[in-house]
Amino acid sequence: MHDFLYDIMSQRERERILLLDGYIDSPGCLGVPPYLSPLARYIFGAFCDEEEFVIQYLTVDQFRTDIRTQKKQYPTDFHSNIIAQYQNYDIIIFITGVSVPGKYLGGMPIRFSELRRFPRYFPDAFQILCGPATVYGIGEEGGKPSVPVEKLAPLYDAILFGDPEIILANLVTHKKFPIRHYRDDLKETAHDVRPDMESIKNLAIQGAAIVTQHPNFSEERGGNLICEIETFRGCPRYKSGGCAFCIEPSKGQPQHRTISSILGEIEALYDRGVRHFRIGSQTDFYAYLHGNYDFPRYPRPNPEKIETLLKGIRELCPDIRTLHIDNVNALNFVLYPEEAGRITEVITEYCTPGNIAALGIESVDPNVVQANNLKGNANEMLKAIEIINHYGNEIGKNGCPKFLPGLNFIMGLPGETKDSLDLNLAFLNEILTRNLQLRRINLRKFLVPSSFSAQRARKITKHLRKNVSRYFQWKKHVRTEIDLPMLKKIFPFGRILKDVYAEKHDGKGTLLRQVGTYPITCFVPKVLQLSCYYDLVIVNHGFRSLTCLVTPLQLTRLTQKELEAIDGIGKKRAMKIQRFRPHTLQDWKDVVPEIWEKILVIQPIIAENEN
Ligand code: SF4
Question: Ligand 1: which of 237, 284, 372, 373 to mutate, judged by most atoms within 8 Å of the beta carbon?
Fold first, then answer.
């Protein structure tokens, strides 16, 4: 049983709340571990009055572990044991909102089937469902329509369709607890939204207290917990209706937070020990506090405000380890190259290396661009990629390029034909030919929003199903022809990557990542202690991952598996090395002359130097 459950039993006079985080991954916000979403923090902030409430944060993965443990120990009555374990809670708040399902190393978002099953474990608690899924449905799999949350209505006491932090904070302000007495009030306010962005200022600061309860947090460098920070909501393209598949334009004119509000929140998180941040919860970081619509397509970016924000963060957080951004609109570079260039320069100066500008390309087929009112054409996208490369491709001190573009494509958008995929591939080849760098390419199937009519959804689903094998082939082409050469260029053999965090064991090896935005996954063929930082040397490449060894390297102590992992050695040579046990560099040259140059690149510590 978790320690906090004992604490809670001794605090029965206060309202006891369990915040069960099923994670968020929407185009504008990430909250899958090691990320912690702003929404979870804001809700926590609404209940931070310690006189009245006890609030506990729990991830859905922690909850699943509890169920598994009980099942193993008490296969016949695990269900009643779980009920007993959590019976002291008065209110359970479920957060859910994955619109773009993916695979995650750090956790698995709550599934629709779990949202149906889990309420049974809390029969006496008042159960609330909230998060982005209440608006756009629950995305289970790309290519299938998302499931409307209304299907879960009979299982929950309340579903919050508006801004949960505001609805819940208002209940607290008006002292409407025990909450079940105010069920009707809650129904009336279930669609309430933020009156303005200042309304979250205090919630954001108070909610910083949640971090010490997060499983990814530790006092040593903040663990690998990374807090997603919000700057504004809405899409600056709302005037032209935005991309046809996206809900952001429906939020109307974007609402921006003030710089002081963001800095106040970051300072509160930093004071609690957080060392990793991503300014990721907005549709376009470059559009934060933007200027006028000098071109009707998009507003003018504001480099001064962005510099003030980033510089302010660095001044407040001298020991910050990660400062990254997410989401960038290519139109900034096309319409306002001077301002966009200046912002890119500012980002490379104040943010930490390994940073990525996630550009939503979706498709460069002109028919698809037109049918979905996408941002721009292939040439416009190339311009953005060129400018970001110009400022960002220098290698930073953690071994990663400072700031590179990452591209998102969506398969199956309306208007797509068999030529569309060829055009997209040709576009990617053009990037390679021009010697431009991309940090990553995301290929996703269109997730049909629950707002689409049944007829439209059926048509798209049919198209996606019909093209399954074509998508599979195309993805394979992208992975082999583009991803692999790009990865070798950006992360060459022998490069040292600093501060890589061991997250998970995988067979007889370990998966590690640096903390940040879309970090590359590194596999080390050795079982390492988890939740620690290591420096690694790159010795081989997968399509979207690296094989590495812990550095400094001690060649004489490498196992058969570690030797095999080094590009060019393979099983037989590894056995030969094991047999002859070369000690000096000259020995190595004699035993494996054909890979001698590679051994020199990875700069090993030779045994005789160790003695
Ligand atoms: S540019 Fe398109 S995808 Fe991006 S937020 Fe706006 S409408 Fe959505």
Answer: 237
